[in-house]
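PROTEIN DESIGN WORKSHEET
SECTION A - STRUCTURE
LENGTH: 198
C-ALPHA CELLS:
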C-alpha cells in the first residue's frame, strides 16, 4: 500500500511536470523568445529539457550503493530477528500444547496468557522494526534526492536547462537520448562523494 502511494505521487508529479512543459512550449510559439544573460553569458530562453536515467544513476552512484547496502543489511537483521522470535513462539506454543492434557485449569489459563503475550510481543516488535525500516528508507531517499538536487543546482547554474526530469521505464513514451545528462550527473555526484569520504 505504501509503495502504491509513493508510485502514485511520483506519477502525479511527473504528469504535472509534463503539463508545465507542454504549457510553456505552446506559449513559446506565441511569443518569440528573448535572450537572457546569466553569469555574463547569453542563454536563449525557452524550454530546454534534460533527463537523468534513474536506473543508471542507482547502479553507478557510489553513495547510493553504500546507503542501499547498509539498508539491506539492516533489513536482513530485522527479518532474522523476527524469524527468531517466531521460532521461539512456535516452539513454546508446541511445548504448551503437548502439556495441555496434563494441565489443570489454572495452568492452562497461565499457558494461554503466556502464548498471547508472546504473540503480542512478536507483533509489536515486527511493527516497530517495520516502522524503523520505513523511516530509514524514507530518510535515505530524501538524503539522495537532496544530494542530486544540490548537485543539479550547481550543474545548471548557467541556466542551460529549464527542466531536468528523472526517467524511469514506463513513465515516458519517447525520449531523445541527446537530452540524457545521466553520465555527467553520475561523474559529478561520485566526485563529490569521493571528496567527502577523504
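SECTION B - SEQUENCE
RESIDUE ASSIGNMENT:
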Amino acid at each position: 500500500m505504501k509503495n502504491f502511494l509513493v508510485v502514485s505521487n511520483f506519477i502525479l508529479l511527473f504528469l504535472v511536470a509534463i503539463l508545465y512543459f507542454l504549457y510553456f512550449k505552446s506559449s513559446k510559439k506565441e511569443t518569440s523568445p528573448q535572450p537572457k544573460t546569466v553569469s555574463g553569458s547569453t542563454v536563449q530562453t525557452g524550454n530546454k529539457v534534460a533527463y537523468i536515467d534513474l536506473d543508471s544513476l542507482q547502479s553507478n552512484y557510489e553513495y547510493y550503493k553504500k546507503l542501499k547496502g547498509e539498508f539491506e543489511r539492516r533489513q536482513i537483521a530485522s527479518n532474522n530477528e523476527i524469524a527468531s522470535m517466531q521460532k521461539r513462539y512456535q516452539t513454546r506454543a508446541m511445548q504448551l500444547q503437548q502439556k495441555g492434557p496434563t494441565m489443570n485449569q489454572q495452568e492452562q489459563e497461565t499457558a494461554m496468557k503466556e502464548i498471547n503475550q508472546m504473540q503480542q510481543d512478536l507483533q509489536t516488535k515486527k511493527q516497530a522494526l517495520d516502522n524503523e525500516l520505513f523511516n530509514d528508507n524514507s530518510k535515505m531517499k530524501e538524503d539522495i534526492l537532496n544530494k542530486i538536487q544540490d548537485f543539479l543546482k550547481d550543474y545548471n547554474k548557467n541556466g542551460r536547462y529549464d527542466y531536468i526530469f528523472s526517467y524511469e521505464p514506463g513513465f515516458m513514451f519517447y525520449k531523445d537520448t541527446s537530452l540524457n545528462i545521466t553520465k555527467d550527473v553520475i561523474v559529478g555526484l561520485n566526485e563529490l562523494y569521493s571528496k567527502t569520504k577523504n
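SECTION C - NOTES
The helical segments are 2-30, 54-60, 62-99, 105-155, 182-197.
The chain has one domain: 24-197.
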